[in-house]
Design a protein that fits this description.
The structure holds two protein chains of two kinds.
Chain A (H helix, E strand, L loop, with lengths): L3 E4 L2 E4 L5 E7 L5 E8 L3 E10 L2 E4 L7 E2 L9 E3 L8 E8 L9 E2 L3 E5 L1
Parallel strand pairs in A: 2-11
Antiparallel strand pairs in A: 1-3, 3-8, 4-5, 4-9, 5-6, 7-8, 9-10, 9-11
Chain B lengths: L2 E3 L4 E5 L4 E3 L2 E3 L5 E8 L6 E7 L6 E3 L2 E6 L4 E6 L8 E9 L8 E2 L3 E6 L1
Parallel strand pairs in B: 2-12
Antiparallel strand pairs in B: 1-4, 3-9, 5-6, 5-10, 7-8, 8-9, 10-11, 10-12
The chains are: A mainly beta, B mainly beta.
């Protein structure tokens, strides 16, 4: 089954404690992204990757890091989480295509930073 | 810069009513893509439809229909004979063909509540 898998689904952590949210896709997609969802703001892109070792900032990259060492994996790293990073996070993947194809989203990770 | 506005933050209807969710977008690109996603209470994002800027044909899929009008920069979504299972948050999104990484710009979402 084609899917994007995020882990963990729920996470409560304390301010300043480094954490990683993993994301893996099995569709051999070139493009992967991270979004955060906040009430009234919809989803906003944090970082994206166009292929292995190619990453770039989205709209709200401050406080986040990513890496793309393998095509299927795109982890999101919070080196020193703060309460304003409490949010619902989604990983997405899509094909590189002449016409843009729809993004497939993971199930989401609800992060609370206290 | 691209922008998507969903002016209706919450809509409440009674089952079997028709309901239209509005979406207005802004872009300077001539080639772009529009999307609707559904987010049920379980939280996942479910893809509903994609439209490219050159295809203004309206689309119908069962009880769902979409009206794309470039003249008014709108991409509205209508649910006919709504059901309780339609209760969800609905997001409209835009992607410009020239943007790197296939970034989607989302509207703020419309929460639809369908009461029995």
């Amino acid at each position: 089954e084609a899917q994007v898998t995020q882990n963990p689904r729920y996470l409560i952590t304390v301010t300043g404690k480094k954490l990683t949210v993993t994301c893996s896709q099995n569709m051999n997609h070139e493009y992967m992204s991270w979004y955060r969802q906040d009430p009234g703001l919809g989803l906003r892109q944090i970082y994206y990757s166009m292929n292995v070792e190619v990453t770039d900032k989205g709209d709200v990259p401050e406080g986040y890091k990513v890496s793309r060492k393998e095509k299927r994996n795109f982890p999101l790293i919070l080196e020193s989480p703060s309460p304003n990073q409490t949010s619902l996070y989604f990983c997405a993947s899509s094909r590189k295509d002449r016409g843009f194809t729809e993004a497939f989203f993971g199930q989401g990770t609800r992060l609370t930073v206290v | 810069a691209q922008k998507v506005t969903q002016a209706q933050t919450e809509i409440s209807v009674v089952e079997k009513e028709d309901v239209t969710l509005d979406c207005v977008y802004e872009t300077r690109d001539t080639t772009y893509y529009l999307f609707w996603y559904k987010q049920p209470p379980s939280g996942e994002l479910v893809f509903l439809i994609r439209r490219n800027s050159f295809d203004e044909q309206n689309e119908i899929s069962g009880r769902y229909s979409w009206n794309f009008q470039k003249s008014t920069s709108s991409f509205n979504f209508t649910i006919t004979a709504s059901q309780v299972v339609d209760s969800a948050v609905y997001f409209c999104a835009l992607s410009e063909a020239n943007n790197a990484g296939n970034m989607l710009t989302f509207g703020g979402g419309t929460r639809l509540m369908v009461k029995p």
